[in-house]
Amino acid sequence: MLEINDVKKESNEHTVTIRKQEHAPAHMPAPKHNQTVRTLRWQAPEYTHHEKTADWYWAVAIIIIALLVSSYYLESILFAFIILVGGCGILIYGSKTPEIFTFEVSGAGIRIGDRLFPYETLQSFWIFYSIGDTKELSIRSDHMLVPMIKIPLGEQNPTELRELLLNFMPEVAQEESLVEVISRLLKF
Questions:
Q1: Which residues sit opposite 16 in a β-bridge?
Q2: What is the pLDDT of residue 73?
Q3: What separation in angstroms does the CA of 68 have from each of 56, 86, 119, 138?
Q4: Rounded to whole angstroms, how far apart are CA atoms 93 and 89?
Q5: What is the CATH topology of the domain spanning 13-20+30-45+100-185?
Q6: Rounded to whole angstroms, what are the CA distances from 104 to 2, 40, 82, 100?
Q7: DSSP three-state, residue 16
Q8: Residues 138, 123: contact at Cβ < 8 Å?
Q9: Where exactly are the structural domains of the chain?
Q10: Which of 26, 57, 87, 187 could disulfide-link 50, Cβ–Cβ 3.0 to 4.6 Å?
């Protein structure tokens, strides 16, 4: 289990009254009638941004050129096209600065910006927290196009968030994917 430290004692919560029990999934107990449920709200960048040095761009360019040379020897125009498009995408995405989003966890669901994810569409959650490295809420969703929702916690206290989410959905351990681990190691 991940170690959770109480990194923030300040309260950034509001209260809201639950009038109906329709917000909680069938497998989780709903809050009692008129029980107040905290609402946690915070702002954070959409992803962790790492400043890229000129060496990073040179390394990506060298890898793209090496793959283009291999596509020439393989006589594959499609592979070359995919490498060019993917390489340009990586270079553009690497130079982009993340937007700041407002995140909210309440009795109605989880809100990211203007989009609300009701608890009925969410299966479980897990908080990835490693001091000085990772601080992220991972949610398994019923959506086919968005099966995993990753939410950076910014300055939000992970212990408070966990206590609130346990009222609405189960906590199920998750593993980071290989792509996420590699991206974090490469500071992408």
A1: 37
A2: 93
A3: 18, 12, 46, 36
A4: 6
A5: PH-domain like (2.30.29)
A6: 23, 6, 38, 13
A7: strand
A8: no
A9: 13-20+30-45+100-185, 54-95
A10: 187
pTM, full prediction: 0.65
Give the separation between CA 42 and CA 127, rounded to whole angstroms.
16
Helices (DSSP H) in 2-124: which residue ranges?
54-74, 77-95
Q: What is the largest CA-CA distance in the chain?
A: 70
Could you tell me the two tokens for 41?
Answer: 């709200």
Residue pLDDT, tens place only, 36-90: 678 899 998 887 777 888 998 999 999 999 999 999 999 999 999 999 999 999 8
Selection from 138, 184, 132 nearest residue 161 by Cα: 138
Q: Tell me, what's the pLDDT at 61?
A: 92
Q: Closest Cα partner for 133 from 108, 152, 160?
A: 152
Mean pLDDT of 97-107: 90
Comparing CA positions, the residue from 147, 151, 148, 142 lying closest to residue 121 is: 142
pLDDT band at 26 (very low <50, low <70, confident <90, very high): very low
Phi-psi region of 158 (alpha: psi -120 to 50; beta: other; left: phi over 0): alpha
Any alpha helices (H) in 9-76, and if so which ranges? 54-74
